[in-house]
Specification:
This protein is of the alpha/beta class. It is 57% helix and 9% strand. The protein is built from 14 helices and five strands. This is MurR/RpiR family transcriptional regulator.
């Protein structure tokens, strides 16, 4: 029988590893070499001299020094201190999308995919900025209006939160077309809220239109799965989820989308808390309207 009782606990990934993963998109080729070496050799890296780290990563010692400072460590010694903390929390590597084999049976395949998504959720909880979420909830409840800009797969997240918010009576629009985004951004002004959703935080058209909205004095809320992105630099409030996807995987995993949607689910519930009975009344009215459409 393929399916077995497996109850392995899934723990949050260490802060250092999450920091490295969240900044991969901003690294230059040399930095990515170091990051890849560290992530693939966590057990060996602890206590490793800087010279050996440089040699095995195929970069210079100066590059390693710049890399650890890029991560926020004051020195290589500080980096090694963080490695000790990281390995104190280590656990068995969760197998994910990139570990799927052609010969995997149905249950084994499902287990790998589920574990990868669960790991992303656990990691997101460990880094979530609840104060930023609460501030966003306060603004949305105060303004009762939100414009969402997104493209590609990020539209899945965008349409999900839009649908839930307008059922609470909040005026919520969502645009993916660059021209529609540009028109909308040009008409936003002081007191308006715009949310930009981008997994990598680097979509050119999206960023251009968010900058336009910002110049018009609209408040920008960014949603991404990476730190240090162009999106973060132009956002007044930044909401960051974890991303447990492997860049080398040949298909399109859903980890970042799932973790972003659950993070925004927290935002949604915070909004309902603030709206209290009004939220309940709006939701019940919308339920009655939908029920009349069912056979």
């Amino acid at each position: 029988m393929e399916k077995q009782e497996e109850k392995d606990a899934i723990f949050a990934t260490s802060e250092l590893v999450l920091n490295i993963k969240s900044r991969m998109q901003q690294m230059n080729p040399a930095q990515k070499k170091i990051a890849k070496f560290i992530l693939e050799n966590l057990d060996e890296v602890q206590g490793m001299p800087i010279g050996e780290m440089a040699r095995r990563s195929q970069v210079s010692e100066a590059t390693v020094s710049r890399f650890v400072k890029f991560l926020g460590c004051g020195s290589y010694r500080d980096f090694q201190t963080e490695m000790v903390k990281s390995n104190a929390l280590k656990h068995e590597k969760i197998r994910g999308y990139s570990d799927v084999q052609n010969l995997d049976g149905g249950y084994q395949l499902c287990k790998k995919i589920f574990e990868s998504n669960i790991q992303s959720l656990v990691d997101t909880l460990s880094i979530i900025d609840s104060e930023a979420l609460e501030k966003t909830a306060d603004l949305i409840v105060e303004k009762r209006k939100l414009c969402i800009l997104a493209q590609g797969r990020s539209m899945v997240t965008a349409t999900s939160i839009r649908q839930r918010l307008y059922r609470l009576g909040i005026s919520c629009s969502c645009y993916s077309d660059p021209h529609e985004q540009a028109i909308t951004a040009s008409l936003l002004g002081e007191g308006d809220l715009v949310m930009g959703i981008s997994t990598f935080g680097r979509s050119k058209n999206l960023l251009k239109n968010l900058r336009l909205a910002s110049r018009n004095k609209a408040a920008v809320i960014g949603v991404s799965s990476y730190r240090g992105t162009p999106l973060e630099k132009i956002s007044d409030i930044m909401l960051v989820a974890s991303n447990n996807e492997e860049a080398s995987f040949g298909f399109e995993p859903s980890c970042s989308t799932v973790s972003q949607m659950v993070m925004l689910d927290c935002l949604y519930i915070m909004i309902t808390q603030r709206m209290k009975e009004e939220a309940q009344q709006c939701f019940l009215k919308s339920c009655d309207a939908i029920e009349s459409e069912r056979e």
